Amino acid sequence: MTRELKLRIISGIILAILALAVTWAGGYAFALFSVVIGALVFSEWSAMTRLVLRGRRGLALGWASFALAAVALVLFGILWALAVVILGVLAAILLYRRDHASRWLPTGIFYSGLAMISLEAVRGSSSAGLMATIFLFAVVWSTDIMAFFFGRALGGPKLAPRISPGKTWSGAIGGTLSGVFAGACVQFAAGGQGLLRILLIAFVLSVAGQVGDLFESWVKRRSGVKDSGRIIPGHGGVMDRVDALVVAATLALAIVLVELALTGNLGQLDGQQASIGAILLGL
């Protein structure tokens, strides 16, 4: 085992313990955790895509949009925070059209805002939210870890050689199967109903997480950087660790939003204590 891999494993364990502890605490502790992750994501995104070199007004707009969304999330709830993020994205698009600001700006506002909102939405304040977050972690982390080991052990055709040369189809498939199995185990432990639904959700979230990983690799390749940052020893930046989690959590939120909208129950998400956990897991 190389020194870099040892450092990566140790850092990963510490981060996992921290994430699980904050998830268990819930409430404002997890809300703050989500806000900090979103803020670090926007900071790394801004540095990677060099937003400051393309206009300070654009960067100021991005931070203002994120800050207002964070306040809305804590005080008023998920839907208000989503509305603020959408308004920020629209304002960034208008700025790009008028002042030739970076096209990376609206994407950065959207990506970092959803990183914060989706994580807090999944956790909420209920015990179902706790299990839903553990379910999300289990699916994403198992997919990520086992994709690495399956890919190393089996090799084979590359998944997306122009974006991330190290990823293979064997790793992607092995990671997905592992993520689905981990999700099913959490669902069984939680006593939820609808195994087929959970297997399907776990499969979709596992694939979404890998798409999120590839998306961040594409952004880094376009930006000419190896890592999104240097804050985590052996891993790089925060985006390098939460890229899959952000997309999977966002899709989990989208699934529940669509389900609530189709049934006319979108009002269930009013208030800052709302959680999509019970709906997601069928608890």
Automatic annotation (TrEMBL):
Any GO BP annotation: CDP-diacylglycerol biosynthetic process
Source taxon at top rank: Bacteria
Topology of this chain in the membrane: Multi-pass membrane protein
PROSITE patterns hit by this protein: CDS (PS01315)
GO terms for MF: phosphatidate cytidylyltransferase activity
UniProt keywords, alphabetically: Cell membrane, Lipid biosynthesis, Lipid metabolism, Membrane, Nucleotidyltransferase, Phospholipid biosynthesis, Phospholipid metabolism, Transferase, Transmembrane, Transmembrane helix
EC number(s) stated in the UniProt entry for this protein: 2.7.7.41
TM regions (residue ranges): 12-43, 63-96, 103-122, 128-150, 171-190, 244-262
Known catalytic reactions: a 1,2-diacyl-sn-glycero-3-phosphate + CTP + H(+) = a CDP-1,2-diacyl-sn-glycerol + diphosphate
The keyword Disulfide bond appears for this protein: no
Pfam families named among the record's database cross-references: CTP_transf_1
One GO CC term on file: plasma membrane
Compartments where located: Cell membrane
Keyword hit for Lipid biosynthesis: yes
Pathway(s) per entry: Lipid metabolism; Phospholipid metabolism; CDP-diacylglycerol biosynthesis; CDP-diacylglycerol from sn-glycerol 3-phosphate: step 3/3
Family: Belongs to the CDS family.
Protein name per Swiss-Prot or TrEMBL: Phosphatidate cytidylyltransferase
The organism of origin for this protein: Xaviernesmea rhizosphaerae
Phylogenetic lineage: Bacteria, Pseudomonadati, Pseudomonadota, Alphaproteobacteria, Hyphomicrobiales
